[in-house]
Amino acid sequence: QVRLVESGGGLVQAGGSLRLSCAASGRTFSCYGMAWFRQAPGKGREFVSRISWNGGSTYYADSVKSRFDISRDNAKNTVYLQKNSLKLEDTAVYYCAADRFARRSAVYTSQTEYGYWGQGTQVTVSS
To answer: Which helix (H) or strand (E) holds 122?
Structure first.
């Protein structure tokens, strides 16, 4: 059983920064790509960012490119999302997700490509 636990959400002013963490347990974390998705109130869940299993490649949605940075520490079984220059429209519940299959390096932005999900952490950006 794979377990993903997000942390680091909260209330932040526009223009501020926040770092989310996702701790994984239950399987060989270092073999799987990881991603962050978010769901704003009244909207569907959308892709935010992905990092390959070995950390060698990253990918971002256009809406967060140059503001967010995804990274991972395989020794700690943790993936991070550093969020800078936050905007009101970044308000959402943020979810981390683990790839369905090991050692895939292609870019996957669809939720169906991810087999495991955390419970989500709320990020609220205020003016």
So the answer is: strand 121-126
The DSSP secondary-structure symbol of 27 reads S
The Cα 61–Cα 64 span in angstroms is: 6
> Hey, how many other C-beta atoms are within 10 angstroms of the C-beta on 16?
13
DSSP 67-103: TEEEEEETTTTEEEEEE-S--GGG-EEEEEEEEEEET
Helix, strand, or coil (residue 113): helix
- With cut-offs at 50, 70 and 90, classify the pLDDT of residue 27: confident
As a whole-number percent, the residues of the chain with pLDDT over 90 amount to: 90
Q: Which of 48, 51, 45 is nearest to 36 (CA)?
A: 48
Residue 84 is predicted with a pLDDT of 97
CA angle in degrees (0–180, nearest 5) for 64-69-75: 145
Cα(49)–Cα(66) distance, integer angstroms: 11
What is the model's pLDDT at position 2? 81
